Amino acid sequence: MRRFRLAAISISTLLASARVASAAGDAAAGEVTFKVCRTCHQIGESARNFVGPELNGVVGRKAGTVSGYNYSDANKNSGLTWDEATLTKYLKTPREVVPGTKMAFPGLPRDSDIANVIAYLKQFGPDGKKL
Ligand code: HEC
Question: Domain tally for the chain?
Answer without folding.
Answer: 1
